[in-house]
Sequence to fold (172 residues):
Amino acid sequence: MNGGIDLNIKFNKEPVTLVGSQVKVGEKAKPFKAVKNDLSEFNSEDYKGKILVYSVVPSIDTGVCSLQARTFNEDATKLGDDVVVVTISNDLPFAQKRFCATEGIDNSMIISDYKDHEFGEKYGFLMKELMLLARGVVVVDKEGNISYVEYVEEVTNEVDFEKAIEAVKKLK
Fold:
């Protein structure tokens, strides 16, 4: 693991250390692999040419994370076929699958970074103290460039849904 990122991120008002490399608008999105909830491999390279919305949450079993996954799932239907919404957490794929079935998540994808923490480290969302992902959003354009990034300062708070969706709409 690389050194920590200094963004003053807190979890329940306690400072946490983000591991990896903070991503910034204008950078090329880093390819990564994770695990889909059917245990197959998710490869970000498979979605080249699409607008990607990475909705990053600590655990889908919490109220704020659940709200984030449901909100982006609903928005996915309005954004068009060239937009792929991917919620990422370190929850086990089995819990993610149950969550999707219970909550009716069928317009977006939920993937797990539990195995290798590749997304968390490459995008700078992995909280060292908890080994969970911090909350945020990353929007990647069709050319693979990062066009919007939000690291939520207090992980227990919501992302700015409006700004994230507006960033996607600007790319269409």
